[in-house]
Amino acid sequence: MNEHDSGRGPDRLWSVLRELTPYVWPNGRGDLKIRIFISFILLILAKLATIAMPYAFKWATDALTELAKGAPPATEIFAGPIALTFLYGGLRIAMAGFTQARDALFAEVAMNAVRRLALDVFVHLHALPLRFHLERKTGALTRVLERGRNAIETLTRMVMLTGVPTIFELALVFGVLLFQFDARYAAIVLVTIVAYLAYTFVATNWRISIRRSMNESDSDANAKAIDSLLNYETVKYFGAEKREAARYDRTMARYERNSVKSYISLNVLNFGQTLIFTLGMATLMALCVSGIQQGRNSVGDFVLLNAMMIQLYQPLNFMGMVYREIKQALIDISMMFDILKQPNEIAEAPDAPALVVRAGSLRFDDVHFAYDPARPILRGLSFEAPAGKTLALVGPSGAGKSTISRLIFRFYQPQRGRILIDGQDISKVSLESLRACLGMAAQDNVLFNDTIRYNILYGRPEASEEEMRAAAALARIDKFVELAPGGYEAQVGERGLKLSGGEKQRVAIARTLLKNPSILVLDEATSALDTLTEREIQETLEDLPRKGATIVIAHRLSTIVKADEILVIDQGAIVERGDHATLLAQGGVYAALWNRQRAEQQAAAHAELETETPREKKGDDELLFGASEL
């Protein structure tokens, strides 16, 4: 959704407030409701004390004026005014105490709302399909979450702790003006407030469009910075530091222009507000001076009006800020609620049963799938991976091999056909139970920015130290970890960038082995490993007692020669199937791929030998030269 629509009109305000109500007034949290009730009582007491303070000034001034007309004893001169001055101080302390107690009580209500809504959005983001995340910029999305969290706190504070108290105080001020003075005073204040608020709303709407552009450029700059830093190595490979800096600076230049406009618009707004209020206050004070000259008012009334208008200016100024902040908060919160409204195409039925894994077989039954309807990826794919057997998938890039693994995990839903585990349609079971029985080690493994221990234990957090170390040993990562500074407590860095590609793959394999899934999916899981380590891990996987099926997606055919069955996939369909020997004997697509890879390996080995020979010869010459010198 667009930011402009998200903050439009009072309807949007009420819509957001309705959506926020369950978070601010939560069911089952009587303690929070009591806090809200007590907060409103304290609010009323604070505002009554606020209105009483100018009266203490008035009474003290009138007492001093009367006593100053004669020459009474000092005790008579000072007893009344001093007591009233202390009354003013007591009222001010009471007002501050009530206000701070109210804010302290309401803080838990506001922060509980922030926490619960942020958690709901976070959970929903994880529930949304992979398609949603691939189409969004991570930096911009995290920015929406960050601003949304701040906006919830801002909106609850502005509405409950500033907006409502200010409206209540304005009502009290009008009552005092009508009771203490006359309708002319109330009319002047009313005109001043209406003009002040009208100007504030018009100027703020102008500022909102500027703030919207500023937020868009801020999100864009943040997304570009995160994207560039996450691809740190790629930037270095292409020497693109200056290009990235220029790209980032262009977005920051736009942010700079919009920020300057925002500051200027704020200055214009503040000056206009001050001008309107000052003119209204001066008119009111002049009317009071005229009343004093005519004997209708006292000097104390002048002090009362002055103190009351000064006190009124602060909440009135807050009303301008309240409007500005609420408008901005509506934009930010609406974007969070829009995330919650994103449909989940992989939604499960509320009463979906848990998957019951008995053997661990996997079957694709006439599966059709396309990311884009105009470009089919899988065309009626049917195969079965029996429990305890290894099924390999090979084929050219873009054939649909990795799509198969995504469908197994239900990151996407096939347009037609079924995927079954032990005869149970995975679209009809709970996602939690489905993914609990699956394990994945992929080519591009992203690790959490935490320790090696945390990343391995992510496969099964409750695993013991011995189980964790055993998984590391099976993945051939144990010796590396023991030599690394910090051992298992060593940090892997953002997305695991402190580790090499092979080290990341071994950590990923270790956490998958620790999970001990019923069905194991290996998607180019050893592509970044050297030949020796790859062979060792393959032997480990072959020796492990596997109850369920193992699916291996491979580019290097040498890694799947022992698979029970190999499927050759091209353009989303199975073109050949059989074991390694059978497929070689057929002399088809698989045999051609095998021969091509063998030729490439032999050529690479020959080239390596050619480059090593001069070095070896040079080494021999140096040895002979050294011997002759002796």
What can you tell me about this protein's structure?
With 630 residues, the chain is an alpha/beta fold. It folds into 3 domains: 8-180 and 320-342, ABC transporter transmembrane region fold (Up-down Bundle), CATH 1.20.1560.10; 182-296; 362-444 and 516-610, Rossmann fold (3-Layer(aba) Sandwich), CATH 3.40.50.300. 67% of the residues lie in helices and 9% in strands. It is built from 19 helices and 10 strands. The protein has helices spanning 3-6, 9-24, 30-68, 74-127, 130-134, 138-180, 183-230, 232-237, 241-293, 299-340, 401-408, 431-436, 452-457, 465-474, 478-483, 501-515, 531-543, 580-586, 589-629; strands at residues 362-369, 378-385, 390-394, 416-421, 424-425, 438-442, 519-523, 550-553, 565-570, 573-578. The strands form 2 sheets. A 6-stranded mixed sheet has the order 6-7-8-3-9-10. A 4-stranded antiparallel sheet has the order 2-1-4-5, covered by helices on one side. A hairpin with a 2-residue loop joins strand 4 and strand 5 (424-425). Helix 3 (30-68) packs across helix 6 and helix 14 (465-474) packs across helix 16 (501-515). The longest helix has 54 residues, at 74-127. The radius of gyration is 37 Å and the shape is elongated. The N and C termini lie far apart (83 Å). 31% of the residues are buried. Residues 1-8 and 613-630 have low confidence and may be disordered.
